[in-house]
């Protein structure tokens, strides 16, 4: 099969943020983390360089899923949990579009869990921005599949007794080719990561730790807030040793088959000993370990954790069609109707 | 005078092959049917197989059958009473005796009637010898013995050799009907040509069956002759409804200059549509076998948004899962063809049996008021034209559409006169023009269809979704008056399709004592029953509906010309309920059957007579 990589037509004029502002009033609560995500998208879309008509944003239902209304692109506000399936149809039917999905943790991992794992497994070339506020916002405060065990919410007055999903683990379990994580209060990092997601051919999942000021305020604070972020976050950079801490003196080392946190300068540990991040490696083993890191023993990994090359579903569809067109004798419907066993009555 | 010496001439004949699931009954049934088609007979077929893949052998539940009705006249049904029954074991004989009549010829494999098989099928004595078949024209063929004899010296193992039992019976059945074997031989060569000597073996055994006729005692040498049908000149093929549906969609995509997209999840008896469309990549057909029916339909809605002719195929329980997304498609006002191949329900019900009981679900099975185009195909070949029209109206009127077919249409087959697709109606999608002041919910004043703006087009960026829309702008709106207006506009748009569909036809006199009303896959049987009534001098006519929502504009006028109206359907009265709500000024009688069996002509006529006498 000849490789035809779906290419998206580029803009011949320079675009700015203003090209993507829809002008509709943004109705998220003041202080909601979603505002930052909108800002990052408005930053990054003009930089990606595609013609502005080639962007399409699809969403499900939830606070997060109001997103398409606020960005001036082609947009589709769907039904609860189905954004991934809708977007699969959009991209397969029209591979020359840059397709983005705005979704929540409930939307993607509860009602839409099935579609979420299958779009990832197929590696459809779309970019998923997953607003993870660990709660159901729009329905006012019920626990979600990412809500930490024991949390008291409107539907768990005695604390949840459910094991939460770790998004990265789920993505990699579904053979994800791209996974990144960012906090909502670091728009610069979010913009960089979204740009990398756009560049990636295949399903990119960008999990945003998003604060819901109303129903789950500060749920990520232990990781994202000013006082904790240096110790409890590590921002991964491809090709660089994994270092974190307010004094940049801590690192992640591979010890046998496990990761461990080490202090540079202590017990003879030097920078040379640290794990060097390779986001492009095919084997997801270390990516999975990085995605699973978290308190109390580890910092949470931010930035692009995995970005592996793999053929995309939509490219493979086009390749099969090209090949069939070349080899099949059936070129139009009349050929089809007249193929096989037919007979003439005169 | 018959055209073949000593043969009994029949206007039409019904032949059924029955055996264990796995005995190859579907194959020989199809081959027999194709031979009659090739010979110029008109025909209809119906495969009837168990829900289990490999049910226990020699049991009634495991019987697999294939029925062929062919003739020199127009064939409207797959037939009722059999002229020839080919039964490979006692269970299949037992299960089908009720379809025989006094002079049915019954071919049995006498070797298969051993004690254990008789016992498993629930016979307490051997029907071949206990006199219970008295009067039937029983021909006992020692199939196993014959095959063993013929293959003994060839070094073929018994198991392989005995797999051709179906071929022996096929050969004999062809001979009984004075048909030649050449079509079957060509097929066997094509199918088994590259499998060692399998083709040769099958052809040899086919011939053994064919020649066995000469060895029969003269009183068993019963042979029939069915003349060629006087069919319109042209090129024909035998087609089943599911294939026809798939091809109708491809034809529509070509006439609309759109790419066809199918998002679907396998379910009996609709799966074949998915499998058929997956074959046609060379025509640009894109098929996604989704993770469930919700993904099937929502991906299709996404594809429709992105500018494809989108479709999804399913059966009853799958349609239930798609309900929420159907409402979304109504709200978005995007084209979408949903094919529902009905089966017996509720729930998983009777997966391999046919019923017409999803009409209410199609009409109303959504939250809120969400009307859409509802159509029903009426024969296997009609599935082609119905799918085509469903797609055309859906695209041109920017509305989702449900096309109802059913198991017997989907699996059943009939002759299909091959049309020239280039002469079929053009399909004109109502595209929005690039770089115009696009308002997503601005409408064509005639049809009320909104315009289709394909992502990627310059100057048409817009956002739509499932929340209520403000008229014209499409912006999310909760305004009470606007909501009522939009509900009315969406309904009116669907009603206006009535201006673009043909008037309802009446078969027979345009006025009379009784109008028989039907829809969907029952057309053939009901037409036959009406023809018989007319022959018996009764003023009975037939109106068979293909368009259900909206109804053809002249429906009321037609109904007003008859003293009585009877609505016949294979459910408890779903269409009649809809008619009562839509055209309440008429009184409707009803004939219903919910056995996952077709109507029989006599039971219908009995109803008509009763009504006429009241
Ligand atoms: C079929 C269906 N079930 C339930 C709902 C109600 N519902 C709307 S949003 C939502 C949860 C949203 O949570 P999440 O995806 O985390 O998004 P957030 O609002 O937190 O951004 C639910 C249960 C619905 N709209 N549709
Ligand atoms: S409820 Fe929470 S998630 Fe929703 S807009 Fe308000 S802050 Fe944001």
Q: Helix share of residues of chain A? A: 25-40%
State the helical fraction of chain B: 25-40%
Q: What's the rounded overall pLDDT mean of chain B?
A: 96
Rough outline of chain A: globular
* Total helical segments of chain A: 12
Report the portion of residues of chain B in β strands. 15-25%
Radius of gyration of chain A: 22 Å
Number of helices of chain B: 20
Major β-sheet profile of chain B: 8 strands, mixed
Multimeric state:
heterodimer
Order of strands, main sheet of chain A, comes to 2-1-3-4-6-5-11-7
Largest sheet, spatial ordering of strands of chain B: 7-6-5-2-4-3-16-9
Q: How large, in whole angstroms, is the Cα Rg of chain B? A: 27 Å
The bound ligands are: thiamine diphosphate, iron/sulfur cluster
Q: What class do helices, strands and sheet pairing of chain A give?
A: alpha/beta
Strand percentage of chain A lies at 15-25%
Shape of chain B: globular
Description:
The complex is a heterodimer of chains A (346) and B (614). Chain A is α/β, with parallel strands linked by helices. In chain A, 31% of the residues lie in helices and 18% in strands. The radius of gyration of chain A is 22 Å and the shape is globular. Helix content of chain B is 36%, strand content 21%. Chain B contains 20 helices and 22 strands. An eight-stranded mixed beta sheet of chain B has the order 7-6-5-2-4-3-16-9, with helices on both faces. Chain B has a seven-stranded mixed beta sheet with strand order 11-10-12-13-15-14-20, sandwiched between helices. A four-stranded parallel beta sheet of chain B has the order 19-18-21-22, with helices on both faces. In chain B, helix 9 runs parallel beside helix 14 (382-397) and helix 17 (523-535) packs across helix 20 (601-613). Chain B is globular, with a radius of gyration of 27 Å. Classes of the chains: A alpha/beta (346), B alpha/beta (614). Chains A and B meet through strand 1, strand 2, helix 3, helix 5 and helix 11 of A and helix 1, strand 9, helix 9, helix 11 and helix 12 of B. The complex binds thiamine diphosphate (TPP) and iron/sulfur cluster. Thiamine diphosphate (TPP) binds at residues 61-64, 80, 104-107, 131, 133, 135-139, 144 of chain A.
């Amino acid at each position: 099969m000849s490789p035809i990589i779906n290419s998206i037509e580029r803009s011949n004029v320079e675009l700015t943020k203003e090209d993507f502002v829809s002008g509709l009033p943004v109705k998220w609560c003041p202080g909601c983390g979603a505002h930052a995500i909108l800002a990052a998208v408005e930053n990054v879309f003009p930089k990606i360089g595609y013609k502005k008509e080639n962007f399409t944003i699809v969403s499900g239902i939830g606070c997060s899923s109001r997103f398409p209304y606020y960005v001036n692109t082609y947009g589709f506000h769907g039904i609860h949990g189905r954004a991934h399936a809708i977007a699969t149809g959009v991209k397969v039917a029209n591979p020359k579009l840059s397709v983005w999905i705005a979704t929540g943790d409930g939307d993607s991992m509860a009602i839409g869990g099935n579609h979420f794992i299958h779009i990832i497994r197929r590696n459809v070339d779309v970019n998923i921005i997953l607003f993870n506020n660990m709660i159901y916002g729009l329905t006012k405060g019920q626990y979600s599949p990412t809500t930490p065990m024991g949390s008291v919410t409107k539907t768990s007055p005695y604390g949840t007794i459910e094991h939460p999903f770790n998004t990265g683990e789920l993505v990699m379990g579904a053979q994800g080719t791209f996974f990144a994580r960012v906090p909502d209060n670091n728009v610069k990092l979010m913009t960089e990561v979204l740009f990398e997601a756009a560049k990636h051919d295949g399903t990119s999942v960008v999990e945003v730790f998003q604060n819901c000021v109303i129903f789950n305020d500060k749920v990520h604070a232990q990781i994202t807030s000013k006082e904790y972020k240096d110790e409890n976050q590590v921002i991964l950079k491809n090709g660089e040793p994994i270092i974190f801490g307010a004094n940049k003196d801590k690192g992640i080392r591979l010890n046998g088959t496990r990761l461990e946190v080490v202090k540079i300068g202590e017990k003879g540990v030097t920078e040379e000993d640290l794990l060097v991040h390779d986001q492009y490696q095919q084997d997801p083993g270390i990516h999975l370990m990085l995605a699973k890191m978290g308190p109390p023993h580890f910092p949470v990994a931010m930035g692009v954790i995995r970005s592996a090359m793999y053929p995309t579903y939509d490219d493979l569809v086009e390749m099969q069609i090209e090949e069939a067109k070349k080899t099949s004798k059936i070129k139009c419907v009349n050929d089809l109707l007249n193929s096989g066993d037919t007979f003439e009555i005169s | 005078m018959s055209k073949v010496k000593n043969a009994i001439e029949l206007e039409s004949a019904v032949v059924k092959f029955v055996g264990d699931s796995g005995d190859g009954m579907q194959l020989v049934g199809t081959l027999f049917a194709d031979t009659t088609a090739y010979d110029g007979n008109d025909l209809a077929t119906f495969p009837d197989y168990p829900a289990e893949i490999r049910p226990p052998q020699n049991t009634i539940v495991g019987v697999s059958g294939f029925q062929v009705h062919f003739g020199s006249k127009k064939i409207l049904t797959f037939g009722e009473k059999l002229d020839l029954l080919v039964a490979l074991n006692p269970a299949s004989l037992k299960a089908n005796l009720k379809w025989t009549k006094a002079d049915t010829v019954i071919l049995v494999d006498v070797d298969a009637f051993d004690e254990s098989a008789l016992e498993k099928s629930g016979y307490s004595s051997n029907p071949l010898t206990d006199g219970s078949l008295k009067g039937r024209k029983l021909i006992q063929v020692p199939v196993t013995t014959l095959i063993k004899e013929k293959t003994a010296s060839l070094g073929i193992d018994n198991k392989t050799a005995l797999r051709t039992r179906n071929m022996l019976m096929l050969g004999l059945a062809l001979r009984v009907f004075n048909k030649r074997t050449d079509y079957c031989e060509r097929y066997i060569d094509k199918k088994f040509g590259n499998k060692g000597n399998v083709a040769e073996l099958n052809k040899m055994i086919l011939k053994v069956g064919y020649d066995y006729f000469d060895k029969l005692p003269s009183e068993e040498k019963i042979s029939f002759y069915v003349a060629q049908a006087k069919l319109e000149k042209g090129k024909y093929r035998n087609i089943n409804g599911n294939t026809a549906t798939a091809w109708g969609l491809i034809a529509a995509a070509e006439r609309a200059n759109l790419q066809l997209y199918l998002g679907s999840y396998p379910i009996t008896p609709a799966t074949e549509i998915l499998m058929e469309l997956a074959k046609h990549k060379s025509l640009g057909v894109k098929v996604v076998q989704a993770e469930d029916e919700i993904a099937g339909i929502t991906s299709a809605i996404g594809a429709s948004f992105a500018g494809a002719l989108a479709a999804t195929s399913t059966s009853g329980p799958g349609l239930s899962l798609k309900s929420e997304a159907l409402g979304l498609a109504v709200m978005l006002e995007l084209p979408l063809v949903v094919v529902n191949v009905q089966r017996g329900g509720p729930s998983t019900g009777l997966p391999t049996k046919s019923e017409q009981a999803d009409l209410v679900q199609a009409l109303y099975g959504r939250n809120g008021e969400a009307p859409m185009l509802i159509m029903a195909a009426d024969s296997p070949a009609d599935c082609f034209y119905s799918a085509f029209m469903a797609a055309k109206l859906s695209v041109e009127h920017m509305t989702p559409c449900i096309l109802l077919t059913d198991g017997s249409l989907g699996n059943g087959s009939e002759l299909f006169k091959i049309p020239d697709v280039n002469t079929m109606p053009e399909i004109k999608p109502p595209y929005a023009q690039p770089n115009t002041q696009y308002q997503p919910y601005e409408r064509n004043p005639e049809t009320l269809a909104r315009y289709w703006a394909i992502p990627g087009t310059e100057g048409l960026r817009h956002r739509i979704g499932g929340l209520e829309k403000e008229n014209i702008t499409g912006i999310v709106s909760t305004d009470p008056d606007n909501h009522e207006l939009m509900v009315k506009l969406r309904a009116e748009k669907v009603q206006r399709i009535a201006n673009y569909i043909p008037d309802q036809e009446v078969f027979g006199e345009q006025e009379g004592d009784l109008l028989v009303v039907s829809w969907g896959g029952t057309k053939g049987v009901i037409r036959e029953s009406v023809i018989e009534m007319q022959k018996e001098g009764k003023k009975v006519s037939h109106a068979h509906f293909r368009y259900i929502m909206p109804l053809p504009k002249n429906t009321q006028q037609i109904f007003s010309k008859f003293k009585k109206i009877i609505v016949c359907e294979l459910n408890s009265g779903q269409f009649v309920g809809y008619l009562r709500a839509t055209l309440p000024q008429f009184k409707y009688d009803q004939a219903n059957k919910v056995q996952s069996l077709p109507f029989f002509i006599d039971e219908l006529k009995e109803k008509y007579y009763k009504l006429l006498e009241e």
